[in-house]
Amino acid sequence: MKLKKYILETIKYALRSYPIIYPYIKDVENLYAMDAETLRKRNEEKFIMLFQRTYDKSPFYHKLYTEAGIKKEDIKTLDDINKLPIITKDMIKQHADEMLTVPKWKVIAANTSGTTGTPLKVYVSWRTIWFDQAYLYYSRKLNGFKYGQRLISLRGHLDKNITKLRVHLNNTLYLSSYNINKDTIEYYYNQIIKFKPQAIEGYPSSLYSLALFLKDSNLRVNIPVAFSSSETLLDYQRTLIEKQLGTEIFDNYGMTEKTIFLQESRNHNGYYELPGYSINEYVEDGEICTSLINTAFPIIRYKSNDVVELMETTEDNPQIIVKQVTGRKDDYIVCKDGCHIQQLSFLLKGVGNVKYAQFIQEKNGLLTVHIVPDNNYSDENRKQIEQNITDRLGDGNIDFEIKEIEEKDIIYTSRGKFKYLINRMNQL
């Protein structure tokens, strides 16, 4: 099993290694160097070419557009994108094969994580994979890490049966995110110290678990830079990760669909779009994204359920447009007065001695708060949570129950991702 995994990860890296993606890295470098007007003109040209190719070669889009009364000559500028219909996850589920502009044997199937319980199958070409990898390479380079330097990966690559795997070709030490506990933390610590990584990557929850058990064991490491993705990075997680790992963490946000890629800025005051990756329209209840890198499986004006909080750009930060990714549109609680609340991190403000918190709602007006306490957790901590709920959500506006649970009872997705807010009403 371990040998098979070693061979698989080696092959995966070899097919995405620097010599192969070098031409794409140069393209990405050029995109970063473009001024706003030049970049917009380039994106417009790419979009028009994408639309025309899709109109001619994709049975799904050709039917969609002709039924909407859209002719090929109707789309002449980037501003015309608003004329095109929005596509949804359900459309992709039903018509994925018909969306292709190339024979199916030329693409690779990929599956989204399916946090709502309904994973989505999409297709990517090798060109898309290499372009996406080049963006990742370059964005990490800007934050002090180059491919080939020592990297620890704490994502979902290993299951509980394989604790570690060193892949020599990419100089990466994979550690299982499923085995971090008080009995194994010294082993993880020793592996990190011995490996001397330049960087660490992982889900925020995995990096946080590592930091938490290091703290409980009075251990610290020093890793220059950390990269998080695939989950919302919460403030309390960032604080402990940076302290216990001796690191500076940079978060990024993207999709398996290759429709959007946001990178946290150097000064941590927001996220910027990777130039030339996609065209993104931000609306109140989500994002409408058009991929510019996956022409084999075009995704044009795709409505996601993720909600972002925008910020004003300045001359100093012209590209920074997203303050934070607040979560999925479906991730909210409903109070008795009908108010929808997404961000619940404020409910822990000023509360100490809490290892994990998870909020669950099964019906309107009722909230269950699961708390994994540390050894110093007290009634005062519990009362502070109660007070925060009353102050922020309104006295009597929501019935709630606080339950102290064990860490093993925390709910994760099938891919091992942590969700701090679970709305089961939307899963019925």
What is the total domain count?
A: 2
Determine the N-to-C terminus distance.
Answer: 38 Å
Mind telling me the CATH class of the largest domain?
Alpha Beta
Indicate the proportion of strand residues: 15-25%
CATH fourth-tier homologous superfamily of the largest domain:
ANL, N-terminal domain
Q: How are the strands of the largest sheet arranged?
A: 4-5-3-6-7-8-9-10-15-14
How many helix segments?
10
Q: What does this 3D model show about the protein?
A:
With 428 residues, the chain is of the alpha/beta class. It has two domains: 329 residues, ANL, N-terminal domain (Rossmann fold), CATH 3.40.50; 95 residues, GMP Synthetase, Chain A, domain 3, CATH 3.30.300. It has ten helices and 21 strands. The strands form five sheets. Strands 4-5-3-6-7-8-9-10-15-14 form a ten-stranded mixed β-sheet, sandwiched between helices. Strands 20-19-18-21 form a four-stranded mixed β-sheet, with helices on one face. Strand 8 and strand 9 form a beta hairpin. Helix 2 crosses helix 6 and helix 8 packs across helix 9. The longest helix is centred in the first third of the chain and has 22 residues. The two termini are 38 Å apart.
Notable traits:
10 helices; 32% helix; Rossmann fold; 2 domains; GMP Synthetase, Chain A, domain 3; 428 residues; alpha/beta
Question: How would the blueprint of this fold be written?
Answer:
Layout: H1 2-14, H2 18-33, H3 36-57, H4 59-67, H5 89-99, E1 108-111, E2 121-124, H6 126-142, E3 151-154, E4 164-167, E5 172-175, H7 185-195, E6 199-202, H8 204-216, E7 225-228, H9 235-244, E8 248-254, E9 261-264, E10 271-273, E11 278-283, E12 286-291, E13 302-304, E14 306-310, E15 320-328, E16 333-334, E17 340-341, E18 354-363, E19 366-373, H10 379-393, E20 399-404, E21 421-423
Parallel strand pairs: 3-5, 3-6, 6-7, 7-8, 18-21, 19-20
Antiparallel strand pairs: 1-2, 4-5, 8-9, 9-10, 10-15, 11-12, 12-13, 14-15, 16-17, 18-19
Helix pairs in contact: 2-6, 3-4, 8-9
